[in-house]
Specification:
7% helix
Length: 88
């Protein structure tokens, strides 16, 4: 199952497991497996599960979770813990 980062069509519904990777203008960049059915406007990056890149649009800098794991980084950002509003 390859990991794909793409911009999606407006008002798309996403299944669980889709990771948001930022914005490209007004369009959202999302990462998903190729087994998930998502309406794609433009494919930006595709990588194999071992982290090797199959396709990358020229100028695209976003990395898939497989590439981040290969580099030893966490695949997504951890959510900050709720400190009850004590932090200044």
């Amino acid at each position: 199952m390859n990991k794909i980062i793409a911009t999606t069509a407006n008002f798309s519904l996403f299944s669980p497991g889709v990771i948001f990777r930022g914005k490209s203008g007004k369009d959202l960049k999302v990462e998903f497996d190729d087994s998930v059915k998502v309406v794609v406007k433009e494919k930006l990056v595709e990588a194999k599960p071992d982290g090797t890149v199959v396709f990358r649009k020229p100028g695209e800098t976003a990395k898939t979770s497989a590439e981040l794991i290969k580099e030893g980084k966490p695949p997504k950002l951890e959510t900050p813990k709720d400190d009850g509003g004590k932090r200044k």
